[in-house]
Design brief:
The complex is a heterodimer of chains A (about 300) and B (about 260). With about 300 residues, chain A is of the alpha/beta class. Chain A has 10 helices and 12 strands. The chains are: A alpha/beta (about 300), B alpha+beta (about 260).
Chain lengths: ~300, ~260
């Protein structure tokens, strides 16, 4: 794994790695609207995250762009269809395509969500929550291990935003996520916006959640915007990162140290230059948090 | 395997598909958020699938208008829930659905329009291949020509329409009034060009057949035999060679086999 990381990041001079947590810097989600801009202007982005399924195709323009951009930047692959929590058998055909894409792109890492997307062969294409109990932990842990064995590498699993709670739950979400990571050996993609959204929806303290996660497992952070409807907050990825999420991000970095960070934008996608400005904001928040944490010691 | 987790997932997905959350209220903690939370999932299920159809079939949507489009989406989602890992494939069975659904089966041109848009999608992300130049064909000894077979770019496909569907599609794309659907046998080639842009052009029935021969694995000799049915023996080699030369010029040919 460290070999792959080193190989994938050699194009970026500022990249540092540590034994426990690789440092990629600050990334953006690679979106179709920005393909040409990225290739022509080679923006100051340390790495890009791609939605795996968008490139699990046989050929054509998107794959061509991805290969070209991969020559310039490290890439991480982020999936939405692994359905690690589904009670259906793992989709071997999907995993094979994922592995083939990874073989071509040599991503620094591969991630997906701690969720299920369908059952009995029917896909909702949504990231659906699991009950937080031992049955779900054992089920998910076993499947993560199978996936990691098949891919020959660790994967990162991302916490969800959720809008309902199950009567079958026996523990907090933080406890559930932590146990899955510890028992399966996977790493965590900590979506700070999702923690914020779920904390508002379910009435828990967001920093308690972040404090409870196993620090050595967190390899990446997602930042995004959401829609606040008053009685419910929905993870929509269609706004700038709001101040409340920046505040939580700053506290997370102060607590857990440097973590590779990227901004997700999936709807109302602005020009690349606006996202670059927002990414600079992430850099500032990150560095300020580290500085303040150091001064406080 | 049957477990409480599996039962929960079946019931939850069932409520999304039926767009009715009352059947799973026993699964959920009853909090002020619960009803709006459930509505969020139910709404997301249908809106995500409709959005996929919307993205893939803009001209079909414009042709049908809002009411029929909604009828189509609702019916299709119910009959063919997604069994794909990518939303890119969700609409694969739409032409089939439109051929048989009560609201649409009396207008087969609608299915044909859906099929055209799906064929464009298939062309867009078909495998890559390097085209070869006509000079490579000329380098082959003439005595070997009867056995030569051509391999075309994987994105290339043939399309047979019974209606003026391409004209309808073009009008919708240009946001103009649609021409009246009329019965008209017409033949098209769809392919991805050297800049990876999807292209299409009409061909006459003879060129369509000539391509079909090669696509199904026939050789140059068999093509010439077929052309002999409608042309004199003096004209056939020139005609066949003319077709092949134009296919090379379009960048369609990726391999020659002997």
């Amino acid at each position: 794994m460290l070999d792959l990381i080193s190989k994938s990041t050699q194009a970026v001079s500022e990249v540092k790695t540590s034994e426990t947590r690789p440092w990629l810097g600050f990334g953006l989600g690679l979106r179709t609207e920005h393909f040409d801009d990225v290739l022509n202007s080679r923006p100051k982005v340390d790495w890009f995250e791609v939605t795996s399924e968008n490139f699990m195709v046989q050929g054509g323009k998107p794959l061509h762009y991805l290969r070209s951009i991969r020559e310039l930047y490290p890439i991480v692959m982020h999936g939405v269809s692994l359905s690690i929590g589904s009670t259906d058998p793992l989709d071997k055909n999907y995993l094979q395509k994922l592995k083939e894409l990874a073989g071509q792109i040599e991503p620094v890492w591969i991630s997906d969500h701690l969720c299920w997307t369908g059952v009995d062969g029917i896909n909702s294409h949504d990231l659906l929550p699991l009950p937080y109990n031992d049955e779900a932990i054992n089920h998910v842990v076993s499947r993560i291990q199978q996936v990691q064995e098949f891919l020959g590498r660790e994967i990162l699993i991302e916490n969800l935003s959720s809008y309902v709670e199950f009567t079958q739950s026996q523990m907090s979400e933080c406890e559930f996520v932590s146990q899955v990571a510890k028992k399966s050996g996977c790493r965590l993609l900590l979506d700070v916006n999702n923690v914020y959204v779920s904390s508002r929806n379910h009435g828990f303290e967001a920093m308690d959640y972040i404090r409870g996660l196993p620090e050595d497992r967190i390899w990446q952070i997602h930042l995004a915007g959401h829609s606040d409807y008053g009685d419910i907050v929905v993870d929509t990825h269609d706004h700038d990162v709001p101040q409340a999420v920046w505040d939580l991000y700053t506290k997370t970095i102060a607590l857990h140290g440097p973590i590779s960070t990227m901004i997700e934008r999936d709807d109302h996608i602005p020009p690349l230059v606006e996202l670059l400005t927002e990414l600079d904001l992430a850099r500032n928040h990150h560095d300020t948090a580290l500085f303040n944490a150091k001064m406080a010691i | 395997m049957s477990s409480s987790l599996q039962n929960m997932q079946r019931q939850f997905l069932g409520s999304l598909r039926s767009q009715n959350g009352t059947q799973i209220e026993n699964l959920l903690m009853q909090k002020p958020l619960t009803q709006s939370g459930l509505r969020t999932y139910i709404h997301a299920y249908s809106s995500r699938l409709i959005e996929a159809l919307d993205n893939d079939h803009p001209c079909l949507g414009a042709y049908l208008g809002d009411e029929l489009w909604k009828t189509m989406c609702t019916g299709y989602i119910e009959k063919y829930p997604s069994q794909y890992t990518s939303l890119r494939n969700f609409g694969d069975l739409l032409p089939e659905y439109l051929l048989h659904a009560d609201a649409f089966k009396r207008n087969p041109e609608i299915s044909e329009l859906a099929k055209l848009e799906r064929q464009f999608l298939n062309c867009f992300d078909a495998p890559d291949a390097e085209n070869i130049e006509f000079s490579e064909l000329l380098a082959i000894s003439e005595q070997d020509w009867p056995l030569l077979r051509l391999t075309f770019h994987p994105s290339l496909s043939l399309l047979t329409n019974q209606y003026n569907t391409v004209s309808v599609w073009q009008a919708m794309k240009a946001q103009e009034l649609s021409p009246t659907p009329t019965t008209l046998d017409n033949y098209w080639i769809i392919w991805r060009d050297l800049d990876r842009v999807t292209n299409f052009r009409s061909v006459d029935f003879e060129e369509y057949l000539a391509l079909l021969y090669f696509l199904r694995g026939d050789n140059f000799s068999q093509l010439c035999q077929a052309l002999l049915e409608t042309h004199s023996i003096e004209k056939v080699p020139t005609l066949a060679l003319g077709y092949i030369k134009s296919w090379f010029a379009e960048g369609w040919v990726v391999d020659i086999e002997l």
